[in-house]
From TrEMBL, chains A, B:
Span of domain S-Me-THD N-terminal: 10-164
The organism of origin for this protein: Galactobacter valiniphilus
Domain of life the protein comes from: Bacteria
Domain S-Me-THD-like C-terminal: 167-351
Protein name as annotated: DUF917 domain-containing protein
């Protein structure tokens, strides 16, 4: 059933998306600002379920691309958010009928709300990952053969580039260097899909899910319950670790915010320290002796008491945090998906460790 | 009057263009190979003068972009040459009617021949510079307010990117990083102009001029006359220096072939050594004590005896060469043109030195 997405729901969605964004997706409040502005100027957005999208729909994803460390200082305008959707529509020669989120993640769950409001289009209650990942080809539609192209990039200056590439990895490569040159943060739109393809390839109901998580965190806080308990229940995950951030190393390189954070537990804890490795998103959580969880499953950092999600660029020395893990969409555990988003892709020589401590089988290798 | 451009004329044009390309534009023989292949497969090209182009024509320039050091190892295909012209035509929603050269320079005078042949379009006997320059905004049409956008890039893999930017410098910036990522050598097409604008903005008859220079070099060689004398007469320039290449420093950085070459004269010469600084093209010619000539005027290196033009990537220790200078199109000496292609733009803190030893007036500066 379609529902009305108004300003009151934006903050819940942004908060829930900041959690499922596993550290990436940028500051949720910045994205919420823009969405609220768009809703105030253009009225509320109709959110439709995947089942309601007609087969002949023209669906595009909309997202911010770049380093979250830059996004926090470079807020896009509504013009910048509309430009790439329009450019792809013109390229296709067909009117775009629906907007969808490429990922859930602070800014990237609210930018599409702004785009839908400003363009007067319905927003699909779904996304391409069920979490956030750092590279643009890392969406479930890629596994379904959907091409990222034509994909448009737009910056705040008015520059637009439309890519038509031989595969989605090339879209990422060319878009990434253009993004860096255009100021390390751009709005992209692409992955044109008809309704039937969107139904098969996207993660259903993820905007609602984000909204529910966001409101559950607030409700628990108001009712003096532990927000982390409410989160763990909704994401069907577990609490991995709790402690104080004692070190954060972070650099913005090649268009990404890359780094690591170290969290030390108080006395009596099972493990004394946890290390998180991230590239926009948290990719690996490990103790000094053992890998606990890796991408594609979700590694989430929240404030110890308030349960407020903390993005990778907001991690600071001295923060008291809790680290949670949860399962990703099961399709991310297929071998071809793990080749795209598993720890080895990101340079970590280890199998995919699931949220519950089990590991995914490794692809068979030929003995040399 | 229009004329038929067939395979017999390609080599003359390539040789003359290698000279006027002032070291840039890539290996003329590579471009000639592709043009000859296109003419063999699709028949001869009609070259039309600027006067013959109708006012409502849709003119696009076509060029190879990248480092000549890479071009020599990565020959484009006819498919790659046609792709960006088609992409811009589709973007404009109007059929392209004429192809023109962006610059004269080895490959970039023959790639448009290949494009015109393969696309079945007339080629305008004109170009955008009357020489070669390293960055794409450096064409006379920029001075006439022609936008480079929409400009398309295509690589040999099949990737295409269409840029629509706020100014021509942004086209250069985004295209350059995309070019580097796509393999440091791509085919570009852009600068859409109607016939009236092309007539005002382009350098007329430059393909014919290149062909005439090329055939004059060959004729002088066959008749045992000095080819350099024939060149100097046709380019209305002078011989600056003669000697042996004793040092070449060259690197491919940020998508350009940058470097310097040192040439030492035999005993009795007026100056003992000449240094050339280049970024794809020769930009500065100076002795140890004096600047002789800078961009935008032409600095050309040819083989000492045969008069064969030597591109910057072909400069080698031990070559006996002669260095020539000639005037550029006079429009390059306007103040706004010098800001775009004068020595200061390229990082050389000196006024523009003309081919004849005079200097251009410097823009007035406010005393601090």
């Amino acid at each position: 059933m379609s529902w009305i997405l108004d300003a009151g729901r934006v903050e819940d969605i942004a908060r829930g998306a900041a959690l499922l964004g596993t550290g990436g997706g940028g500051d949720p409040y910045i994205g919420a600002l823009l969405a609220r502005q768009a809703l105030a100027e253009h009225g509320p957005v109709t959110a439709v379920t995947l089942e309601e999208v007609p087969d002949d729909a023209v669906v595009l994803t909309v997202a911010m691309m770049g380093a979250p460390t830059v996004m926090v200082e470079k807020l896009p305008s509504l013009k910048e958010v509309m430009a790439p959707v329009r450019a792809v529509g013109e390229y296709l020669g067909r009117p775009v009928t629906h907007v969808a989120c490429a990922e859930v993640g602070g800014v990237n769950s609210t930018i599409p709300i702004a785009a839908a409001a400003a363009l007067g289009l319905p927003l699909i209650d779904a996304d391409g990952m069920g979490r956030a990942f750092p590279e643009l080809q890392m969406v479930l539609p890629t596994l379904y053969g959907v091409t990222a192209s034509p994909l448009a990039l737009a910056d705040e200056k008015g520059n637009v580039s439309v890519l038509n590439t031989v595969d989605n990895t090339w879209t990422e490569r060319i878009a990434r260097v253009a993004c860096v040159e255009m100021g390390c943060s751009v709005i992209i739109s692409g992955f044109p899909m008809d309704g039937a393809t969107a139904r098969a390839a996207l993660v259903p109901d993820s905007l609602s899910h984000c909204g529910n998580i966001g409101s559950a965190i607030l409700a628990a806080r108001e009712e003096k319950r532990d927000p982390v308990g409410a989160i763990v229940e909704l994401v069907r995950g577990r609490e991995l670790f709790g402690g104080k951030v004692v070190d954060v190393q972070r650099g913005t390189t090649a268009g990404f915010a890359r780094g690591r954070a170290r969290i030390e537990a108080g006395s009596g804890a099972e493990a004394s320290a946890l290390e998180l490795n991230f590239q926009n998103e948290h990719l690996v959580a490990r103790t000094d002796t053992k890998v606990l969880v890796t991408a594609p499953d979700l590694i989430m950092v929240v404030d110890h008491d308030s349960g407020e999600p903390i993005t990778t660029e907001a991690l600071r020395y001295g923060q008291r945090v809790r680290v949670l893990a949860a399962p990703s969409d099961p399709r991310w555990h297929q071998p071809e998906a793990l080749a795209m988003v598993g720890p080895r892709y990101f340079g970590y020589e280890m199998p995919s460790h699931r949220w519950d401590g089990s590991t995914d089988p490794e692809p068979a290798t030929v003995a040399s």
